Amino acid sequence: MRAILLLGLLTSLLLPPCLRAHDGDDGGGPGSVVQGPYWVGPAHSGSWFQPDRSGEGFILEILPDGNAVAAWFTFPAAGESGEQVWLVAAGGRVQGNTLVFEQVYRPRGGRFGAAFDPAQIDNVNWGRFEFQFHDCQSATLRYTGSGGYGSGTRALRRITSIDQLDCSGGRALAAGGGRAIEGLRSRSGNWFVPGRSGEGWFIEDLSGGRMLVYWFTFDPAGNQLWLTGVGERGADNRLAVDAYVTRGTRFGAAFDPAAVRQQRWGRLEFDFTSCTGAAFRYAADDAAYGSGSYAAGRVTVLAGAPCIDGTPQARSSGNWVEAARMPVPAQSELAAAAYDGKIYALGGYGDNRGFKRYDAASNQWTTLSPMPAGRHHLAAFADRGSIYFVGGAPVGGGDQSAAGFRYDIAAERWEPVPELSPTFGSHAATLNGRVYIGRGDGTLEEFDPRQRAVRRIGAPDQTERDHSQVVAFQGEIWMIGGRFPDSRTTAIYDPVTQTWRAGPSFLHARGGFAAAVVGEQIIITGGEQTHAFPALLVGVTEVYAAGGERWISGPRLPQPVHGVPGVSLDGRIYVVSGSDKAGLTTGATGRLFWWRPQ
User: Fold this and answer.
1) Considering only CA atoms, which of 487, 483, 477, 432 is closest in space to residue 457?
2) What does DSSP say about strands 200-205 and 210-218: parallel, antiparallel, or unpaired?
3) Are 278 and 379 within one domain?
4) Are 503 and 177 in contact, with CB atoms under 8 Å apart?
5) Which tens digit of pLDDT belongs to each residue from 37-75?
6) pLDDT tier for residue 16 given thresholds of 50, 70 and 90
7) Is residue 317 within 8 Å of residue 557, measured between CB atoms?
8) Last residue of a domain, one of 276, 298, 320
9) Residue 501 belongs to what domain range?
10) What share of the chain has pLDDT > 70, as a percent?
11) 296 - beta bridge partners?
12) Domain boundary, last residue among 248, 283, 298
């Protein structure tokens, strides 16, 4: 538990006077296209407080795996020693518009500076948090604590919006519509010093280059201590802030905002050497704390706020390599998903109930038990030890009672997922613990496997997306290409604002192609053009790098195919089988190609 909760400690709120509560759009942002219930999402990361209790507050982080962390910085209950208290929680789970933390801890046992011993940290179980969000700017906290803390509620308002995660918008965009590189430099998250688990910083990137720092630590006597400071990160990635300590009141009904006082504690400096590393220095005004320096590392990244070192360039050199062919019968218009070093191929023409697994380490295929329902033109995805398939055209018998099914890899067992809806011809991607399933009319179905719940995301326009590809890239969902008519266009869905925008058009119109994200770039290849007569296969590979303005050409696929999925595994894109006969349902090749961009 110490490794989870204390590697990068949290803190929340009493901000220095230079910060004011954020006034912005409520809900999912202007123009939200979500059709369904309100869910917790990446826009809820940030600092929150109750306006009539200025002096204590909360910080929330929504993480890329769909989990969350939280902290409450506050004051001791009546009768307790010390002047400050901070509480931390990890493993928060989403239940619709509510974020639940079943275990909240109060770390004890640390001392400041050289006297700090991580072996002495005791994570005392304090209680439970439940945040219910009414929109993007307001929430209700219900808590149950131990001892003199009791239980109660807080009516919360947002006080900070993380840069690039503002629910009203404000993404930095490149000319083609993708995210600009300057918007992919976020340092927001938890930071700590390896070997000093039990204290650390929470950092928020704010707009205009400002950064908010919370330091959770202990005083020389062993009491909990939290400090706050705001500064501006320079062009050299250096941040210096005046840190303040807050004192003067008590928890709960005894809290008196008029008694809260701030006192300058000293100076904090960070030199960010990379997205994951920083040199930290402090100099306290009180000689009891002195000065010191540490090499800090990053623990968490916020959902929707990635960080890229340098400026990626589209890597288009290299050659395609052929791997082992899949066992017969071969498949086309199939689906594929990667999990734990293996590729799973599902259904399609030629083997409607076929379920095969490729092990990249041994370069060998295994034929698994048949799918419960025969399908072609289906979609597939992996999540937490399971392989799912959804949609497609029913064919070849089996149990067609549900649109989707889940395969438990460990148990080797299928079960229906009745929450999923029928779809045809487009693929799916996972992001922030959820799945986005493409549909031919350009809409998406958003599926949360843990809630077993779905929402519909309306289409951005009238563009048909039959046989499109869907990928997750830099915190967003890209819906690429399609046919009827053949398309070169991309639509990008932003889960923060819950809105669409146009992305960069690619060079060659196509549908039924392979796409995958490898590192910091998207790769598409294969597919067909159906506006020509006869239909044409597309062998050209195209690459788009994060922060770029356009797609560029890569190495031509050795065997052009359509009805083919692409998956990302071990820094490679794999292209799985497909048909070498344009416009036809025959011609499944069973061939497997991979390419590692160079």
Assistant:
1) 477
2) antiparallel
3) no
4) yes
5) 999 999 999 999 999 999 999 999 999 999 999 999 999
6) very low
7) no
8) 298
9) 332-595
10) 95
11) 278
12) 298
Residue 392, in any domain of the structure = yes
Q: Which among 299, 282, 300 has a CA at the least distance from the CA of 291?
A: 282
Per the listing, tokens 């009539």 go with 52
Cβ atoms of 381 and 429 within 8 Å: the answer is: yes
Rounded distance, CA 298 to CA 390, Å? 37
Contacts of 69 (CB under 8 A, 6+ apart): 10, 60, 61, 63, 88, 89, 90, 92, 190, 300
For residues 115-142, give the mean pLDDT: 97
Q: Bridge partners of 356?
A: 345, 367
324 occurs within a structural domain: no
What contacts 258, CB < 8 A, 6 or more positions away? none
User: Within a 13 Å sphere around the CA of 421, how many CA atoms are in the beta-carbon half?
Assistant: 16
314 within domain boundaries: no
Query: What is the Cα–Cα distance from 72 to 216, expressed in whole angstroms?
Result: 11
* Total structural domains within the chain: 2
Alpha-carbon distance of 228 to 258, in angstroms, equals: 19
pLDDT tens profile 437-480: 999 999 999 999 999 999 999 999 999 999 999 999 999 999 99
For residues 445 and 421, the answer to whether their CB atoms sit within 8 Å is yes
Token pair 């009791």 in the structure block, residue: 150
Question: What does the pLDDT average to over 159-188?
Answer: 96
Which of 8, 197, 204, 163 has the alpha carbon at shortest distance from 90?
8
DSSP structure string for 129-175: EEEEESSSSEEEEEEEESGGG-EEEEEEEE----TT--TT----B-T
CA distance 156 to 44: 12
Ramachandran region, residue 484 (left: φ > 0; alpha: ψ -120 to 50; beta: rest): left
List the CATH number of the domain containing 581. 2.120.10.80
Look at residue 485 in the predicted model and tell me its pLDDT.
84
Q: Do residues 312 and 521 make contact, with C-beta atoms less than 8 angstroms apart?
A: yes
In a domain, 134, yes or no: yes
The pLDDT of residue 91 is above 60: yes
- Same domain for 258 and 405? no
CB atoms under 10 Å from CB of 583, counted, come to: 16
Structural contact between residues 400 and 373, judged by C-beta atoms closer than 8 angstroms: yes
The verdict on 278 and 406 lying in the same domain is no
- Could you tell me if 478 and 416 lie in one domain? yes
Query: pTM for this one?
Result: 0.94
Counting DSSP H helices and E strands in the chain, the numbers are 1, 45
As a whole number of Å, the CA-based R_g of the chain is 26
Q: Identify residue 113 by its one-letter amino acid code.
A: G
